[in-house]
Every structure is written in C-alpha cells, then in structure tokens.
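Deliverable D5.2: sample structural annotation.
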Amino acid sequence: QVQLVESGGGLVQPGGSLRLSCAASGSMFMFETMAWYRQAPGKQRELVATVPRYGSRIYEDSVKGRFTAFRDAAKNTLELQMNTLKPEDTAVYYCNAVVRSDGAAYWGQGTEVLVSS
C-alpha cells in the first residue's frame, strides 16, 4: 500500500513563496507519473503540475513560470516550489502518484495553502 504525505502548506502573503513536499512510502522509481493537484473552496480539483518518470513536466497555464515541480530521489519526495504566490493560488494541494506496475493511483491527504495579506 502506497502512502503519500504532503507538508509545507501555510499562510503566505501575496508575492511570497512556499515549498510543498510529498513524502512517498515507496521508491520514486515505482511511480510512472506523479502530480500536484489543488482544490480551491467551491471549485473542482484541478491539475497543477505533472512530473512523469520520463519526459517533460507539464504545468497548468496559470502557474507556468511561477511554480516548479520535481522529484527529489534522494529524499524520496515530490516537491512543488511556488513563487510569486497570488490569492487565487489559495487551495488545498494534493499529491498524486500512479504506480508503474499496475496503474493504481494514490492520493495524499492534502496540505492547505492560504495566500492572503
């Protein structure tokens, strides 16, 4: 059973930065795709960034140039560096991972990000 645990959320002022981490119970190499999603109050969950095992990372248009997602194999984490944060980035951020061997998808419990002055 794969477990994903997010951390790093909190309150930040507009223009500030936060770094989210998603700790995985298994090796990074077992995941075909890892991704960050977010769900703002009253809205549907949306894809923020995809980090495939091979190939280019994909970002949602509104975060391009501000967010960077990557796998840290040494720490066995998925990271999300968020810069120049805006109030509209306020959401619960979720980590997602798809296992290469069977296609099973797993979710973390989420970490809340509040961008407000």
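Annotation notes: The mean pLDDT is 95. The radius of gyration is 13 Å.
The annotation will be released with the project's public dataset once the embargo ends.
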